[in-house]
Amino acid sequence: MGESEDEMLNDEDVLNSRINVSLVADNRSMKRNLVGFWILGLINNFAYVIMLSAAHDLLKASSYHDNTKEALNWDEDAVYHQIAIDKDDSGRDCNPLSTGSILLADVLPAVIIKLVAPFTPISATFKVITTSFLALASFILVSVAQSHSQTFIGVALASLSSGLGEVTFLAYTHKFDPMVLSAWSSGTGGAGILGSGVYAVLTHLGVSPRTAVILMSGLPASMLITYLFILKEVPTERAEAPPVSIEQVALIDDHPDPDLQHNEVLSLVEKFRIIPGLLKYMIPLGLVYFFEYLINQGLFELMYFPGSGLSHSQQYRWYQFIYSIGVLISRSSLHWIKISQIKILALFQLLNFILALFQSIFWSVPMIWLIFLLIFWEGLLGGAAYVNTFYRISLESSAREKEFSLGVSSLADSGFIGLAGFVSIYLHTWICALPV
């Protein structure tokens, strides 16, 4: 009897030891995956952010190329200096095209790819490789573009890259602990602050906009390296399961959750049936982004402060940078703050749009730092809506539907951003025609 008890104790010690080793390994994998998804979010959104941060400059540069006979031998620094001294600081300084046109080129291809990708049985690895090559091509083409059309093609490639990357990695998170969504969202927020910040600093130091863009072209390779060598899948049922007794361990191994082991391939009919249930997440998120990008691409360049000590282009860049700080903070906040009522964020964003619209028309706010605060708050709202929406989808979707639900819901932000791009073009034209 004594020997039998000793054997049972030894077996229990061995099993406990194995469980502890497994928990340590899972903890290390979790840290790797958090870092990996943060890097992927950063790189995936970097090209997108750079294109929007450079929108004001790219349109000016392309307009110069389109209207000069010496386009092949131009001095870009001289052009920007001439543009600055030719402008009358007492009037509205408007581009012939709204930066909303850059937004459309930066979003519409993403909308198309997000409509298609969730319904196609293509491996994640192939999608990641394609995403990396599209990003590289966008940096190269934009840096050498000599017309509006070439610029728009380069921006469209960045949009395809960002859209395909977002729908791929959001869907891929279903194989990991739900908290990797926080890391991914924080990384995309980091792209905003690092992308717009690096661009603003480089151009402020005298680096031409196109040179600043080409300097970013080494980043896409980092996406492949991170995906292939840093991420490590951890069974989500182990990461999320409550503590169990020693006697239950063998049963868990022998009889895994049938829902998790179910064939994960959804039919086309099943996918379409899932979409109506996702609208409660998608519409509030879309509205937040609609008002957000009406401000960013329709009104940013019209909220001009001639006596601020910053040129018009510099003001636009710093607006993007401050907005990105707000996005980064809120997209990184999921561990501490969770928000379920995204509708409230949409109402606040509508109020921000109304305030920005009044400033764009009447120039009633006397100090630029007040607009900086408004833009920072706008970024906080947008980032919070994004991370909390996808976190709720991850928690509330069944294991079998989670991958598709996360992927297709990313269409909400891009679709409404595209709509904002169309509206912002007309809004820009209307405001520019008004007297100051």
Gyration radius, in Å: 25 Å
Can you count the helices?
Answer: 18
**SS class:** mainly alpha
Distance between the termini: 96 Å
Shape: globular
Estimated share of beta-strand residues = under 5%
Task: Write up what this structure looks like.
The chain is mostly helical. It contains 18 helices and no strands. The chain has helices at residues 2-53, 55-67, 76-86, 100-116, 124-144, 148-172, 180-204, 209-214, 220-229, 236-240, 246-254, 258-261, 268-299, 312-331, 342-362, 368-396, 399-409, 411-432. Helix 1 (2-53) runs parallel beside helix 7, helix 4 (100-116) packs across helix 6 and helix 4 packs antiparallel against helix 18 (411-432). It is globular, with a radius of gyration of 25 Å. The N and C termini lie far apart (96 Å). Residues 18-24, 68-90 and 238-263 have low confidence and may be disordered.
Gist of the model:
With 436 residues, the chain is an all-alpha fold. Helices cover 76% and strands 0% of the residues.
Fold topology:
Layout: H1 2-53, H2 55-67, H3 76-86, H4 100-116, H5 124-144, H6 148-172, H7 180-204, H8 209-214, H9 220-229, H10 236-240, H11 246-254, H12 258-261, H13 268-299, H14 312-331, H15 342-362, H16 368-396, H17 399-409, H18 411-432
